[in-house]
Each structure stands twice: as C-alpha cells, then as structure tokens.
Amino acid sequence: MPLVDVTYAPTVPEAVLRELGAVLPHLVSLAVECPEEPYDGDLQPGDVEVRFRALGPLDRSGLDVVIEIRSKWFASRAADRQERVDSLHEGICEATGLEDFGVYLSLPVAAWAQGD
C-alpha cells in the first residue's frame, strides 16, 4: 500500500490540488505495480493513502509541489524505479497541468496490516 505525501505552496490553486488528489491513487498504483502486488484497476479503501500539507512559514522549497511516495520494497520495483518515477511525473503533468513539481519514490523494507 503506497503512502503519498503532497506538500504544496500556498500559490497552488485548490482546484489543482483536488485534481491531483483525484488522479494520484490510480497513477501511483500504476507506477508501483509489480508481480508481487499487481494492480487490477479496482482501488479499495486503504490501497493508496494520500495526504496533503501546505508549506509552513519555516519550510523551504524551490518547487510548487513535492510528492513523496513510500511503497514496499520488492526487487522488481527497485530494478526500474527511475523509469517508474519518470513515467509517474509525466502522468501527473498530463493529468493536472502542473509543471513546477517533483516526485520522490522511496521503496523501504516494510510491512502493512489493516482491518477489514
């Protein structure tokens, strides 16, 4: 289950953030799809968690939006992670019109459990 944190500048319009929130679960799922965790296109609660945070007065960032993704490490994901993040960046740009943003994909060794 990917965890997605979106940090944004106050100049980013709310409509863009709403669109980003709408498209990120699908785009992230495509980006991290692998044989160990295949994506069937049918997202369920808990499949992708997206959180938004505005830049605070002490934060420093050169980008309008930074999207940080953490998803469980698998060798198949790690082998082509740069291609995955490049494709995700392109998909986000096409879907939202954002230009001044970055995407960070982290693949930690992790485990996940959730109730029904």
Provide the descriptors you would attach to this structure in a database record:
116 residues; alpha/beta; four-stranded mixed sheet; globular
Any idea what the shape is? globular
Number of helices: 3
The class by helix and strand makeup works out as alpha/beta
Strand order of the largest sheet: 2-1-3-4
Instruction: Please report the distance between the alpha carbons of the first and last residues.
Output: 15 Å
Structural summary, described in words:
This protein is an alpha/beta fold and 116 residues long. It has helices spanning 14-32, 75-78, 81-96; strands spanning 3-8, 49-54, 65-70, 101-106. It has a 4-stranded mixed β-sheet with strand order 2-1-3-4, covered by helices on one side. Helix 1 (14-32) runs antiparallel to helix 3. It is globular, with a radius of gyration of 14 Å.
